[in-house]
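Exam revision sheet. Question 4 asks you to relate a sequence to its structure. Input first:
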Amino acid sequence: MASKTLTFSVRPRGKPLNKLPEELSLSSTSSSSDLYFQLASSSKTSIHRLRITKGSDGSFIPNTSSLPVSDTGLRDGSTIYVKDLANGPSSSPPGPQISWRLVFVLEYLGPLLIHPLLYFLLSSRDSSQSFLQTLSCILITLHFAKRELETLFLHRFSSATMPLFNLFKNSAHYWLLAGLNIAFWTYRSNLPATGASNPWITWPSVALYVVGELGNLNAHLILRSLRSAGGNERGIPHGFGYGLVTCPNYMFETLAWIGICGVTWSLASVLFAVVAVAQMGVWAQKREVRYRREFGGKYQKKKSVMLPGLW
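Answer key, structure tokens:
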């Protein structure tokens, strides 16, 4: 297909960016990431603050190098709207922004600190901790230490920032539900975890945890390989687990938390696991829809998005 020049009318959505051009021309073979790059360069703002929608139907245009502009539905003479995510109310994430990486680091830091702290504080006040309580602290601390390391050295985010409000929402989920709630109902005396360990439950649970953590790490390594450092491109993941479900990282995360529940003997752990699985299921369904929309016939549709045969 021969390349031709497409010219778009550019309109601000909400408070306009300084130096936002009124028109923009691109080759029809350019990607949507080129569209973002040119608008960011012209307005001298971060590409991650921009949200571009079509004037015809208001649909969002993703920032990805795998999507040609000609496949977005834009035509010569189309109007696009550009929203600065740091300004004004909108149905898209508005207001002050914060780094995705920083949000992840801070939200995981809560349970990473709370569990060892309460383990030792409650031990010194009541009595020495049992084998199951010690094992619970080790597994949960390792889980969140792994998450911190992945956030710092492994994950490549498609966007640099998210709304500042998400920091408080996400931190409440991890600091309260995964941190204080689980720790309080696991490390105190006279709780199920203070009893003797049943090896027929404990060691299969540990095995599930190890499989879950390693499988989750492998899935994250596969996702990392799809995006260049500092890039926004998306690809179709292939490899262990991706033939079964859309998001095997969530499937293995679920296995790890089933293992933790089997060790802690705590309803607090079950509560966090149920809430986490429900949220991951919603994310997995959205990702399946996105894969089908962005990659069309290139993508093999999945019947299960997270748990084979169940969800």
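Marking note for examiners. The chain is about 50% helix and 10% strand.
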